[in-house]
Amino acid sequence: MPVLQKHSFNYFVYDQFARIYKTLTHAHRFTLLDLLNAGRVQQQNTGYGNWSANRDSLTASLDFSRSPSDQNMLYWHIHLLPSGERGSEFLERRKSKGIKCMRERLSHPGLEQGPIYLDYNGTTPIDPQVFEAMAPYLMVHFGNPSSTHFYAHAPHKAIETAREQVARLLSVSSAEIFFTAGGSESDTLAIRGAALSRQAHGKHLITQVTEHPAVLATCRQIAHEHGFHVTELPVDANGQVRPVDVEAAINEQTTLVSIMAANNETGTLQPIAKIAEIAHKYGALMHTDASQAVGKIPIEVTTLGVDLLTVAGHKLYAPKGVGALYVRSGVQLEPIIAGEVRNEGCVRVLRTSLESWHLEPHVR
Fold it and tell me: How is the chain split into domains, by residue range?
């Protein structure tokens, strides 16, 4: 069997598969999954071939072929055909309409032995390119990036490069990017940090009922420990928060509004820009957990109008245990980890524990 080469993983395999998958009936989904799983087993033995399955007026065909430019690379193709239609007729009809066949490279090495992986909203495998970039910082460049000696130079430079990369992803300044240990810590730092630093403004927080537990639990904890009032807004039949409900709930005591950009279970996109406009009208800060949005849809902070934005690395092919928080210049947050306050390294005055420099250069 040809060996998967590094750099062979394609980011959009799941996205394109999911678009097809969601259009199918329940029975047709089983047809496609059965086919792909069977095809994978066959492919491991032969390296190439073609298999098809039929169920309830749908024919799904899968074939593997060698890359014309690299004989060690295999491509896979999925075709969904009305029952009884031959593959050549189907492809000719698609070609006449200017529709290109879906053609993607084989899956990630970690997925070769198991069934089709459909939990990318739960986590993603590390991209081989990310692993390759991480390796020197796991073994060679071990120095503390906050130190001033020789061994600190390479890790420090890597962190600053990573900060610039994340800043470009969000179209913000690198000085506004703070690395954390993941999305949940970013949410906690944003919500708790903003609430406690702005108690003089008020003690009212607004969020919504389908938020990630990291947001809901943090809001409830602040209410219990510091006497804040928390409003959890309902969502409509599409899972969206209505801006009119935000307007009705907000008041002069509201210090922060936290609404996720995209839901991890339903995929619902929230009207963040409209909600941010309402929050700012009443003097409140706007935070959005964009863990499920960054890397999947364009995210520009200036367009959204938010003051705080959460990124989780493992949702977009980076390792687990690393995240980022965008903090708009001028926004003050109360640190959530007590310790020595430094002005160097990735954590600056917000997060005072040691930087994980082998992880942070790879939040993409």
Answer: 13-118, 129-362
Answering whether pTM is above 0.85, one says: no
Mean pLDDT by 10 residues, the chain (364 residues): 29 44 53 50 42 44 48 45 48 49 51 80 88 89 93 94 95 96 96 96 98 97 97 96 98 98 92 98 98 92 97 94 96 82 41 47 38
Where on the phi/psi map is residue 196: left (φ > 0), alpha (ψ -120 to 50), or beta?
A: alpha
Query: What single letter denotes the amino acid at residue 132?
Result: E
Nearest to 111 by CA among 78, 81, 76: 76
Name residue 27's amino acid.
Answer: A
Among candidate residues 179, 177, 185, the one with its CA nearest the CA of residue 212: 185
H helix count then E strand count, the chain: 10, 11
CATH architecture of the domain with range 129-362: 3-Layer(aba) Sandwich (3.40)
| Residue carrying structure tokens 């954390």 | 180
Of the chain, the end-to-end C-alpha distance in Å amounts to 32
- Tokens coding 279: 């929050």
Contact yes or no for 347/179 (Cβ under 8 A) = yes
CB atoms inside a 10 Å sphere around CB 112:
13
CA distance 37 to 113: 10
For residue 9 the two structure tokens come to: 């993983």
Q: Are 324 and 340 in contact (CB under 8 A)?
A: no
Report how far residue 170's alpha carbon sits from residue 166's, in angstroms, rounded to the nearest whole number.
6
Task: Name residue 254's beta-bridge partners.
Answer: 204
Question: Which one-letter DSSP state was computed for residue 356?
Answer: -
**DSSP percent split of the chain into helix, strand, coil, nearest 5:** 35, 20, 45
